[in-house]
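Hey, resending since the last one bounced:
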Amino acid sequence: MKHKIMATALTITLGLSGLSTAALPQTASAENLDDQLNNVKEKQSSNEKELQKKESELADVKAEQEDVQAEIEKLNKEVAETDEKISAKEQEIKDTNTEIDQLKEEIKALEERIAERDKLLKDRVRSMQQNGGGTVDYMEVLLGATDFSDLVERVLALNTIADQDKKILEEHKADKEAVEEKKAQVEDKLASLEENKAELEDLKAELDSKKAQKDKLMKSLEEEEGELHNHMMDLNETAEILSAQETAVKQEIKRAEEAARKAEEERKAAAKAAKEKAEAEAAAAAKAKKEAASSSSNSSSSSNSSSSNSAPAPTPAPEPAPAPSSNASFIKPAAGPITSGLGQRWGTYHAGIDIAQGGQNPVSAAADGTVLRSYHSDSYGNVVFITHSINGQMYTTVYAHMQNRAVSTGQSVSQGTYLGTMGNSGHSTGQHLHFEIHKGSWNSSKSNAVDPMNYIR
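The structure tokens again:
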């Protein structure tokens, strides 16, 4: 029995000793993270070369722009000259309209005077007809003179009347001729006005053509330069993420080593406690057996046999406590239904899943890790990148389009840490969380993206 107890204690001791070496593969974990770090550095170098290439292309475009700019300046000058011609032509048309209006007013006044004279002459003719005609009237005036002096006065008066009648007729004729002349002028002005309007339309068409030509050149340059700038902006953003990722991986290596050290200490403490407990239980069992044997030495052999059979068996060793480790799986980062999965969508690759729900919906870290970057992106909106080391494997998670951000770059977070609130920032058409998991380091092509649904528990 003594040998049996010692064998049990030895087995427990060896088992616990084996437990202390059964920790997570720390060396493999560090090597894996180092490989990932080297991978990130390679991507940084590749991204920097691509950025330099785009900067060279942008310089070439700038050189082309100088030549095109000269053409644009020429067009600008022609456009300005055409604008001046249009302004002059519009003023000329305005002046012509004013002259036409003035002529029409003058014609109206002449026609009113002519109408008044027509009425006066008609009244005189009617009066002469009623008095027997013009000749009888003159004779009566002359024959009615009382003396020579009265005769002379009558002759002079008749001449004055005749001159007035002649003047009236001449004015009447002149006004009619003036009316005809002014009407002809109006017709000429109207014809000139139509010509000016036609020229104005031609000038405007020419102006529109030059502006369209200029706009086409400008648009071509702006699009080419814009594409390069956007690409460079994407490359710069990628460079910043990769740089931050290098720092985050280093922090994760340190965090993983510290967690492994702490776990190893806890395992050793647990093994020591279990060993001491097993030894104490073995000693107690041996003592109990010795006491039982001593008390039964004076008893009969049957009694000894009965006492021996009823002695308490040694207490079995307890199972060792499980070794602590970091979270080995991801949790769903926000509540709500999955509205879009990983795969092709609208002609582009959707590298994650979308979780949508209204109201103030919190977003949490899917696993322990280090905040790779927390910033506002034109495309992702308010976004948080987190680097994770889980059992020696590195992962990167992305939480995009949030309303706000509650963590900062470089911060260590635990699974469930509040990152922000679900929102609609960046290129988004409604409140939701865009969530990505990358197995390994993040890269701009998202070649490491995996389906989060296969990892969320």
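Residues 338-454 form a domain with the Glucose Permease (Domain IIA) fold (CATH 2.70.70.10).

Sorry for the duplicate.
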